[in-house]
Specification:
The protein is α+β, with helices and mostly antiparallel strands. It contains 2 helices and 5 strands; from the N terminus they run E-E-H-E-H-E-E. A 5-stranded mixed sheet has the order 2-1-5-3-4. A hairpin with a 5-residue loop joins strand 1 and strand 2 (about 15). The termini are far apart.
């Protein structure tokens, strides 16, 4: 099972096994990761699951959809080149070892 590390803004980190096919947002909520709200339930409609993806993994991800790209314009924290919505990141073997950092604010 792929392991994903969620890094809080203060630098503290926690790693969790994420089942293949599960979104990083659902895995975070299942594991009580602070800072991932997912208010829309994973529909790319709220941007409350915004994360910064470790640069090493960006080329392993499909590009953001138009909906995700639009929602990333509405994030509370700064949008960066590595900003993604964790509800749109589906875990697979290629993401084993992935590191995502949470922004200061989600709402």
């Amino acid at each position: 099972m792929p392991k994903v590390t969620y890094v809080q803004p203060d630098g503290s980190a926690e790693s969790h096994d994420v089942p293949t096919g599960k979104s990083l947002m659902l895995a975070a909520i299942s594991n009580n990761v602070a800072g991932i709200l997912g208010e829309c339930g994973g529909q790319a409609m709220c941007a409350t699951c915004h994360v910064y993806v470790d640069e090493e993994f960006l080329d392993r991800l499909a590009p953001p959809s138009e909906d995700e790209d639009e929602m990333l314009e509405a994030t509370t924290s700064e949008r960066r080149s590595n900003s993604r919505l964790s509800c749109q990141l589906i875990c697979g073997p290629e993401l084993d070892g992935l590191i995502v950092t949470l922004p200061e604010d989600q709402a």
